[in-house]
Amino acid sequence: MYNQKKAEMIDGGFAFDGKSWLFDQNYPPRFLLEDESVLLFKEAKSITQSSFTSGLGSGVRTLYKGFDKYPDLSFETQAMVDSTTGHAHLTFVPLATDSLPIKEVFFPQPLICQGENSYAVVNTLQGQLIPNDWPEAMFEKKGLPFNGQMCSCGAYLPWFGEIAKDGGYLCYNRQPWDSAYTIEHPAGGPNRVYYRLLPSLGAMRYARTVTYVLVPRGSDYVSLCQAYRAIADEEGRTLTLKQKAALNPNVAKLVGCCVMHCPGKTHVVEDSFYYNREEPEKNDSLHTFDHWTQRVKRLKDMGVSQLYLHLDGWGEPGYDNKHPDYLPACEAMGGWAGMKRLSDTMRDLGYMFGIHDQYRDYYLDAPTYDIDNAAMSADGSVFKQARWAGGWQNFLCASLAPSYVRRNFEELFRQGIHLEGTYLDVFTCNEPDECVNPRHPMTREDCLRYRGECLHYLTAHNIVPSSEEVNDWAIPYQVFCHWAPYYGETAIPVPLFNLVWHDCVMIPWMMEADSWGMPKGTNGFLQALLNGGMGYMSESKEGEELQENIRQWKVISDLHHKVAYEKMVKHEFLNESCTRQRTTFSNGITVEVDFEHNTYIIKE
User: Fold this and answer.
1) Helices of type H across 461-518
2) Contact predicate 532/491, CB 8 Å
3) Can you tell me the mean pLDDT for 331-336?
4) Are strands 119-122 and 88-96 parallel, antiparallel or unpaired?
5) What is the pLDDT confidence band of residue 370, given thresholds at 50, 70 and 90?
6) Would you call 444 helix, strand, or coil by DSSP?
7) pLDDT of 1 over the 60 cut
8) What tens digit of pLDDT does each residue of 173-209 get?
């Protein structure tokens, strides 16, 4: 049942529940062109407005045309209030825009949110709140990941919002794959958050809509998360862990596991950004399959009843080398026979065996490399870099990735390798690609679908699919991830992603306090409890450190068995310094942690 209160269109913004939300006129709607020049919407010589009413709602259309330098250019904006939901939809409609060399479209303008205790709700990685008067400048040093491109770790969720004492809003992007966003926050504020619409295959091509969900006085960031989950449920984009377990029985087996991330063969080539020229011997290392076989046997004897082993560098080329031509199993590690011994041992112990694999980075020295298979940008160029261990690479067009996955995994099956999980790298972290190669054209939306096909292939073979981080687009496919931490530039960390999708994805947490993405003053053990997640098991610790790791995992595992399939329905700060926090799950279990004193309370 939708709130009977509805947004109203007013001059310069919206009105809702007695509050006016106005667009900031210092950010006029505009085009950013390829040469970095700007064309304002209001530069049109002809701007015509017309009201309309349909069976779905009413609003205003504005037609823009008659630009001096671009006489053929015309486009429309539309603002409509949905008569059923009360939501406001703002749409950019490209009528004749092909003559304009568009890089980005800045539409709509940011809303003004001000007043005491107002804050922005932003989905950088796991999420954060940015108070409007936050004393520090934000995103000036590093900027947003992937320049704020949606469907990447820059935005785990396709929306942002703001909350004031007398109400708030959620701004949901309906086509996030072709969108990015910007957050401006100088020292002391204020916040300004807005979208940038991106061309698809070199043109705007289709209408773009953002939806504003206005919420009343007393709402908070949890209210926005719940409002978005309701939208996603209605749109059919939800697949819970219970539903995934019905498709793949190994999903249930993963609940309560610790995750042990293990290296195999490392080989860093000279062209790589990470090549160590001062100590070249450090560019190569090796851990055999039998080394990990002995490690897991020992952990079983020490009382670790559930474990998922993630193995890097198992292929002959070494970690992050020569993908997608990664097979056979590394001979120096023990070859196919050694890999099979490890996978058989894992199965016999009741553990789960999984591997790292990669179907985006396309290495130029892969035996079957062909530049014609690389993703071609709209301008005809092919991206090239030499950052990772394997050196020079392009991006593989994702339309080809499912076939490469099938090719490689059929050989793994033929060799008798028993897999119960697999990590397909970068799919849920990096931005979607597009390709204009006429042999395999692909939009960014297509790219996400092809990535999903790769993950679904694993499910079809009872292999639990994982990727680097988490993302809203992957909810129908993904079961767990490597991690889903917080961004380096974070004001007040909050688990926005878990507040939306906890019952759909399992998230492991690194146990150390100084691990990447861990908010200052916190640690992974308490974060895992607070978030109802999984915990990592060290691949190298011994003695008392290992015993403590096992003790902590047992606490995490016990809780995970109780809440893995539950929604996170509430998150609260219990003191002004935010060191005491509490989460509540849909079965009534609460977890309270104190990061300052390193304590926790679990109530059932």
Assistant:
1) 496-501
2) no
3) 99
4) unpaired
5) very high
6) helix
7) no
8) 999 999 999 999 999 999 999 999 999 999 999 999 9
Q: Which two tokens stand for residue 467?
A: 């990727």
| Cis preceding-peptide flag for 432 (omega within 30 of 0) | no
Whole-number pLDDT of residue 3: 66
For the cut 90, the answer to whether the pLDDT of residue 492 exceeds it is: yes
Count, residues in the chain: 604
- With CA atoms as reference, report the closest residue to 151 among 181, 171, 127: 181
> How many beta carbons lie within 10 A of that of residue 167, not counting itself?
20
- What does the pLDDT average to over 221-225? 99
Q: Are 276 and 324 in contact, with CB atoms under 8 Å apart? A: no
For 45, left (φ over 0), alpha (ψ -120 to 50), or beta?
A: alpha
The whole-angstrom separation of Cα 502 and Cα 468 is 17
Beta bridge partners of 89: 80, 211
Domain 241-359+402-564 CATH class label? alpha beta
Q: Specify the pLDDT at position 515.
A: 84
* C-alpha–C-alpha distance, residues 78 and 210, integer Å: 11
Q: Is 588 helix (H, G, I), strand (E, B) or coil?
A: coil
pLDDT tens digit string along 20-65?
Answer: 999 999 999 999 999 999 999 999 999 999 999 999 999 999 999 9
| Structural contact between residues 139 and 489, judged by C-beta atoms closer than 8 angstroms | yes
Question: In which residue are the tokens 């939800």 written?
Answer: 238
Q: Where are the domains of the chain?
A: 8-234, 241-359+402-564
pTM of the model: 0.97
**d(Cα 105, Cα 33) in Å, to the nearest integer?**
9
Residue 141 confidence class, pLDDT cut points 50, 70, 90: confident
Measure the CA–CA gap between 554 and 378, rounded to whole angstroms.
Answer: 51
% of the chain exceeding 90 in pLDDT: 97
Q: Which residues contact 567 (CB under 8 A, 6 or more apart)?
A: 229, 502, 503, 585, 586
Phi, psi torsion values for 465, nearest 5 degrees: -85, 135
Spatial separation of the C-alpha atoms in residues 236 and 595, rounded to whole Å: 38
Spatial CA neighbour of 42 closest among 71, 61, 62: 62
What's the rounded Cα separation, in Å, for the pair 188 and 194?
19
* pLDDT at res. 528: 98
Long-range contacts: 59-64, Cβ < 8 Å, 24+?
59/9, 59/89, 60/9, 63/95
Q: Selecting from 2.70.98.10, 1.20.1270.10, 2.40.30.170, 3.30.70.360, what CATH number does the domain 8-234 have? A: 2.70.98.10
The secondary element (H helix, E strand) that includes residue 120 is strand 119-122
The angle subtended at Cα 474 by Cα 468 and Cα 478, nearest 5°, is 65
Backbone angles phi, psi at 129, to 5 degrees: -110, 140
pLDDT of 513 over the 90 cut: no
pLDDT at 2: 65
